[in-house]
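Ticket #4471: structure output looks truncated?

Reporter: J.K.
Steps to reproduce: submitted the chain below (405 residues) through the standard prediction queue, then opened the result file.
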Amino acid sequence: MLLSLLLVPQLEFDGNPIRLRDPDSESVRTLEDLAADSDAPLFNLAVLVSDAATAEATAARLTTLGTVERTVTVASLVPADQEEKLLVLEDLDLVLGSTLSGFDAGTSGSSALLPPALAALAARIAATPGPGGGSSKLVDEAAEWLESLNALPGDARQARTALLDRDIGGNLREQVARLGRGLRTAGVAASDLPVELTERWANAAGQELVEVVPKENLNDAEAAARFVAEVRSVEPRATGLPVVYEEASATVTRAFVFALIWALAGVTVMLLFVMRSFRDVLLVLSPVAFAAVVTGAVCVLTGLPLNFANIIALPLLIGVCIDSGIHIVYRMRTEPPEGGDPLATSTSRAVVACALTTIASFGNLAFASHNGMASMGQLLTIGMLMSLVGALAVLPALMRLGRRA
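Returned output as attached by the reporter:
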């Protein structure tokens, strides 16, 4: 327990609710990939300022920070170095302009190329490993569609292929036309930006938003803390999901410290009322104290942080883990066995049976696919096991020391 006291201060609270979900799900993997590349605005911070000039000054200050990749304002949406880029576009228009203006999607010949392309796709899918070996749901659906296509008679298969060709190239003519118009642009000013775009960074009152993109992957709690601290040291008004996560973590931690104190106080008052002996109350609480400290150390060693889900188990552990100590101390007060060994009584066997039943009931949560639920089951299992060790080892030893004293 003394060694565990050295590790308990290293116990962390993971305030990222995304990590409560299944890390192997496609949505979580995609989101983490985007966040790692700073392409997802999920972890960006935002600062609301009074006008465009303040927005540019704020963006300039924030860009110098080591944890900031870049900032986004209305002005940054307008392309820089437009004169040089317009010269490049003029050259491209000189080479490609006539080709793009004369493009005809109907005579592109894509319908003749589609059947061999589908055959090549079917061969590629056939060479892809099956479920569990790399095949995705999309690949499986494509394989089923190709099988259904090949099962059709000739005319029906040709009609289905023509329909697919129209779906693929239906808007090709418009896309090529847009490309041609893009080559003939005369430049872009802030007034040319679409309202649907600018309204994300500016409102009718003239206020503007400065979006701050992190340089590091904020799935790492330490990186998120550095990013929030550094940005808010320059702009205390900065907000966003990283700030929400940090403040929510602090709020939840304070709330459960408060709940733990009240749970412990309530249990202590109840024990004093029932047992009418301060010494017996301390004996009953000793397995709980042992379990709390050692459980925290085990969580540090196994890399199991507290989170929004499993922190609920902490007040619960006090109520569950105190039962064993009550039964053993009460038995030694009312019907002590010969030799005074509490482990020689039927009460100790009942405590083991009851504790193992409770562990089996809560422990199955550890196998849930939801990470938060699984971590709750793991924390409860560790805490109740340590409580059982405290009730069967620490408590009898303290009671023997008390008798010798």
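Triage note (M.O.): checked the attachment and the full token line is present. The domain at 2-14+244-404 is CATH 1.20.1640.10 (Multidrug efflux transporter AcrB transmembrane fold).
Status: closed, working as intended.
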